[in-house]
Amino acid sequence: MEGRATVSTPAALPYYVAFSQLLGLTLVAMTGAWLGLYRGGIAWESDLQFNVHPLCMAIGLIFLQGDALLVYRVFRNEAKRTTKVLHGMLHVSALTIALVGLVAVFDYHRKKGYADLYSLHSWCGILVFVLYFVQWLVGFSFFLFPGASFSLRSRYRASHIFFGATIFILSVGTALLGLKEALLFKLGAKYSLFEPEGVLANVLGLLLACFGGVVLYILTRPDWKRPSQAEEQALSMDFKTLTEGDSPGSQ
After folding, report:
1. Which pTM value belongs to this model?
2. Which tens digit of pLDDT belongs to each residue from 194-220?
3. Where's it found, cell-wise (predicted)?
4. Using CB atoms within 10 A of its CB, is residue 78 exposed (0-12), middle (13-18) or buried (19+)?
């Protein structure tokens, strides 16, 4: 785009991003393979309805949430508003898919007469979903809705980043709890005998941990943060001066 300075991309960043995508796509594919090979596949109106839950959570709360967090590292030269919209839409997609997974498991339990919300996995899962929903609502109100002031956005930005990373870590941990719970329910004592399903699921768990670790590594590298474009800094200064009547300090 004419008049827009191009920000150089750190040499190693594309490789780490590509590696994260390889891990993420592999864990989604392996989740589908695990459910297909050892759990009978997925279907809504049958005993296979429960299997919708782990697949939706792997896609939504793990893969798409991780990709949403990486948007500001990957799209370094695009307009800030475009990047914000993409970041928000990926989170909406993740929330929607996760909601389908929640409905699936609660509906399955209702049909079977099983108890709800008694395990640590279920408690953590509800906590993660509620925090994720609240995080999206607050983030939309501060960064996409035009009513928030510049100073308010600046003060909240660090908290938004912290809670985003924390919720992602909780999502990965909750997924690992759910995976272990599913294995123990079905395999029981056979789990210690290196059953093929147990080995496959253990590899899936390692992929979950590795994907989470790579995403967090990319996020926490200070030199990989998206630098402010010159026009963004100018607009921020003008906006703060007009709305608050003072000269903005450095961000």
Report:
1. 0.88
2. 999 999 999 999 999 999 999 999 999
3. Cytoplasmic vesicle, Secretory vesicle, Chromaffin granule membrane
4. middle
